């Protein structure tokens, strides 16, 4: 049985370098640095593992470990049901690896369960007439020993089966290959495919991607989407929680394999990303790097992550997002983060409703995109802090340890802003009501403290260390509070 999996292990690292949906893991690389958990040493009175809403138990597996785990589950099913390994794999693959459910249904009605699982039929075999019957695909007269069939009994010649398998594998189909007969959905077992295939390269490709399909179908296993990373992550439960690969540093959601996206649910973030991709051209005009000062109208370029802007000409303090007076963005309520819907929109015309829907989307997209750009700018701030710290150490103005709190502050800022960015798709799809009002309140609190922290980090050398560390503590507690209330568990 081990040989069944061993065939699939060949070159599997190539397959595992792709994301869970078959997409290149380069898409994950850009955001990983923005959620690096470099704040473990901070004295922030962080919650215990039991209280941390992001805590998640998982362990990295090498390919050989995953092979052993799959072999054990396949062998268990083979023993209990008295079926061959290929059938056991197909049953596990098609039923979410729920062994007890498979065994219960099989014991109740073995043949009916196999038929329902597309693994067998009532064996209405095609009759081969004469010593040299005709293949219904290639229309050649061949000897009877040239014909083969799977569980359904449909007979085709070996060459036609081989061509069918080659075509399916080249199209990316492996575990889902079906019988060639019209309207027959019986699945072809792995041992049958490997026996018939004459192209060794395609046989290796089939084995490799078949194993990849088994891993992706297992609810407690996931390939790390990091570039050229062969690690397989194993968890006790399939949850939308953060996984950080210790081998390549990739940070992703265990449930969907996308960039970690708390507090937004997997289905919602996929819908949001699709919408952003479809409507990105419509929203491009709000992504400009310059805006006019609301007081003196001088053109200002944003060159930092903080949204608290100060006009160099008239010293006006304003919000980059809404151009409102910054003094009105107090800690009590960060009104800028809340979208104000038209209460009479239901009674307006279709044209007005469509325009209002676009306005709402642009509001949330603008803030989503702005925080993404702020993360990029704050990466530059981190590099500047590193450079300044190195100069201070070289000039004997303290040690690396003395200035490490600046790097910790920059890391925490990126972590908080990353969470804040993903609150906007969450809010966009939320239904109106008391829960959304609570979310928007906590979102505004987090946004206010993140901007305060960003302001202090960008001016770290003139800000008292105690004041900066106090702001770090407040921002992280705001983030934890929001996640405890709204992160999917």
TrEMBL record:
EC number: 2.3.2.31
Keywords: Coiled coil, Metal-binding, Nucleus, Repeat, Transferase, Ubl conjugation pathway, Zinc, Zinc-finger
Superkingdom, taxonomy of origin: Eukaryota
CDD domains in alphabetical order: BRcat_RBR_TRIAD1, Rcat_RBR_TRIAD1, RING-HC_RBR_TRIAD1
InterPro entries on file: Ariadne, BRcat_RBR_TRIAD1, E3_UB_ligase_RBR, IBR_dom, Rcat_RBR_TRIAD1, TRIAD_supradom, Znf_RING, Znf_RING/FYVE/PHD
Compositional bias per record (Polar residues), positions renumbered to this chain: 1-23
GO function terms (MF aspect): ubiquitin protein ligase activity; zinc ion binding
Domain RING-type residues, every copy: 131-340, 135-179
Residue ranges that the Swiss-Prot or TrEMBL entry lists as coiled coil: 443-485
Composition bias, Acidic residues: 24-43
Protein name as catalogued: RBR-type E3 ubiquitin transferase
Organism of derivation: Elysia chlorotica
Lineage: Eukaryota, Metazoa, Spiralia, Lophotrochozoa, Mollusca
């Amino acid at each position: 049985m081990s040989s069944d999996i061993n065939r699939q292990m060949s070159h599997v690292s190539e397959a595992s370098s792709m994301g869970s949906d078959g997409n290149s893991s380069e898409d994950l690389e850009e955001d990983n640095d923005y959620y690096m958990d470099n704040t473990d040493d901070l004295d922030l009175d962080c919650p215990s593992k039991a209280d941390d809403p992001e805590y998640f138990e998982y362990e990295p597996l090498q390919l050989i470990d995953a092979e052993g785990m799959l072999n054990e589950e396949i062998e268990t099913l083979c023993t209990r049901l008295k079926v061959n390994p290929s059938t056991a794999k197909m049953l596990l693959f098609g039923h979410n690896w729920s062994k007890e459910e498979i065994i219960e249904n099989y014991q109740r009605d073995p043949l009916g369960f196999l038929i329902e699982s597309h693994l067998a039929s009532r064996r209405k075999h095609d009759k081969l007439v004469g010593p040299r019957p005709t293949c219904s695909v290639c229309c050649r007269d061949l000897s009877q020993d040239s014909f083969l069939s799977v569980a359904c009994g449909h007979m085709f010649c070996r060459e036609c089966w081989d061509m069918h398998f080659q075509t399916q594998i080249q199209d990316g189909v492996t575990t889902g290959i079906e019988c060639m007969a019209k309207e027959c959905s019986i699945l072809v077992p792995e041992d049958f495919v490997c026996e018939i295939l004459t192209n060794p390269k395609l046989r290796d490709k089939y084995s490799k991607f078949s194993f990849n399909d088994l891993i992706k179908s297992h609810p407690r296993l996931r390939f790390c989407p990091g570039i050229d990373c062969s690690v397989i992550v194993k968890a006790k439960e399939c949850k939308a929680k953060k996984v950080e690969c210790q081998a390549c540093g990739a940070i992703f959601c265990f449930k969907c394999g996308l960039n970690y996206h708390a507090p937004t649910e997997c289905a919602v973030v996929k819908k949001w990303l699709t919408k952003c991709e479809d409507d990105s051209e419509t929203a491009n005009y709000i992504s400009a790097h310059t805006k006019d000062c609301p007081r003196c109208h001088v053109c200002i370029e944003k060159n930092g992550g903080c949204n608290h802007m100060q006009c160099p000409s008239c010293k006006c303090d304003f919000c980059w997002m809404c151009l409102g007076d910054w003094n009105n963005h107090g800690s009590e309520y960060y009104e800028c983060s809340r979208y104000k819907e038209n209460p009479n929109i239901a009674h307006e015309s279709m044209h007005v409703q469509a325009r209002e829907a676009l306005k709402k989307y642009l509001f949330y997209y603008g803030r989503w995109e702005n925080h993404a750009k702020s993360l990029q700018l704050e990466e530059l701030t981190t590099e500047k802090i590193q450079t300044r710290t190195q100069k201070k150490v070289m000039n004997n103005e303290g040690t690396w340890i003395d200035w490490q709190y600046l790097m910790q502050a920059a890391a925490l800022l990126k972590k908080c802003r990353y969470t804040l960015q993903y609150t906007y798709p969450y809010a966009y799809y939320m239904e109106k009501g008391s829960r959304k009002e609570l979310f928007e309140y906590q979102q505004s609190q987090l946004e206010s403290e993140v901007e305060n922290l960003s302001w202090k980090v960008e001016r770290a050398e003139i800000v008292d260390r105690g004041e900066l560390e106090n702001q770090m503590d407040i921002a992280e507690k705001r983030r934890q509070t929001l996640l405890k209330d709204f992160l999917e568990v």
